[in-house]
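In the laboratory, one determines a bound structure by crystallizing the protein with its ligand and collecting diffraction data. In a computational setting the workflow is compressed into a single prediction: the sequence and the ligand go in, and a structural description comes out. We illustrate the idea with fe (ii) ion.
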Amino acid sequence: MCDHCGCREFGPIAELTADHESILEMAWLVSEAADRTDPDRLATRDRLLVLLDEHVVKEETGLYPQLMATGDLSTDTNDRLEEEHRVVRVALVDGTFDRRDYFALAAHIEEEEMELFSGAMFAFDDEEWDEMDAAHHAACHHHPDHDHHHRDAAPAPTH
Ligand SMILES: [Fe+2]
Ligand SMILES: [Fe+2]
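The predicted complex, in structure-token form:
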């Protein structure tokens, strides 16, 4: 996590970080449920898919292209990260999402937080932050039934 470097203070990064916390929490519940047809598991899975789809749009139209534009994300890494998004989604939709998928997702998120977020903090100026903000705003309104924004959320406490 980026508590030491202060990137939680940056609005769009704080928003993605808050998404990650919710995503990991729900993904764990889905992965550890013994019964794949359990209604609670399915309900959590469905809520997770809504959040994940929105989060992926934010990253693939905001953070990733802005990092590529500043030369801080290679096309290969971008393509791999986008593929990882698709793999997670398929496992959730198919109902096969298990602990191995959870740990793969956690590794994806850790890479974003440790490498991409800090890259953005060093590389981005107002223009890139504004582009990220606009991408997040568009992603939030992409899902009319899920229009809450994390942008107003207080930063998580540091430990
Ligand atoms: Fe991602
Ligand atoms: Fe992410």
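Residues 146-159 have pLDDT under 50 and may be disordered. Keep in mind that any predicted model is a hypothesis to be tested, not a measurement.
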